[in-house]
Amino acid sequence: MVAAGQARPTLRDVAERSGVSVSTASLVFSGKGPVAVATAERVRAAAAELGFTGPNPLGSSLRQGRAGAVAVLVEGRLQQAFRDPFAVAVLDGLAEELERVPTGMLLLAQPSGDPASVVPQLAGLALDALVFSLCGPGEQPAVEHLAARGIPMFSTGVPADRRITQVRIDERGSFAEVSRHVRALGHRRVASVAMPLAGTGEPGPVREELAVEKDAGIPSIGRLLGFRDVFGPDATVVQTSDGSSVEGGIVAGRALLDVPESRRPTAIVAQSDVIAAGVIIAAEELGLRVPEDLSVTGFDGVDLPWLPHRITTVDQRGRERGRMIGRLVRRRLDGARPRSATAPVSLREGTTTGPPP
Description:
alpha/beta, Rossmann fold, five-stranded mixed sheet, 13 strands, elongated, single chain, about 15% strand
């Protein structure tokens, strides 16, 4: 045991106590080289006597030129990210790849109402890379700070900056595809439920001017444009106030469906599967059957075992997308300069769509 005020024993102290070189003692602790069993046991015994718990990780990081941590920036509260099964799938795939480095993954929350507040927090952290996970502000105040420090940045499409290595999907084209599926079934009175658009969290109808071509890479904007490519600029779109959530889908679903039948949509195209699940719950609470009275589609391709429906959706393969980002991070840490990539998606038909009543 090391007494209070006593200097912390070093690897050199352990080597001298056990009668071996510092390099041999280092191999015992790293496990990266052949050391005789008897020698290794002697080194560990000396370490136990001296109270040595292992090499200083900070010193090791400095020698390797790495901090040993990759940050993941999540918009809003971390609780919200963990409630979104697609976000969890992406983080799971990313963590799986980072374990191969190996390196730690540090989750940081970026307040939606004050995105710049995360910059002082980042300033105090030693990082090997940072991943902007899923949705976030189109104008990201952390980018300039990270670029100035030379920290590699990765993203799932937002923010769109040439200094960030991206793993994107075709948001607009993918949402147009699921919208065309609904149209092909014969639906003409169709509405969409969107995640918050253009930095506003106000629920309710979406103004046409929010669909800006230059922002098509932002998931909510790109999907809105894809929907309007199929159903036109006058088609009804409402946005949630709290991102992608079941509760937001329930509120939006009631607003769209609790109206006279002549004004009620026969299909709702939602921007995420959990929003779609909320719409389905709202519909059934109002006595509507899915898909006989109302067709509903989602986006993401997550499993919702608690929902007695299999949602027709666009499958983003979240875990594989996280792995793709993780592989790019690994290559960058190995000294390569990986290029941005496009992730595959596919339309997956379920039990929530059918012809209009």
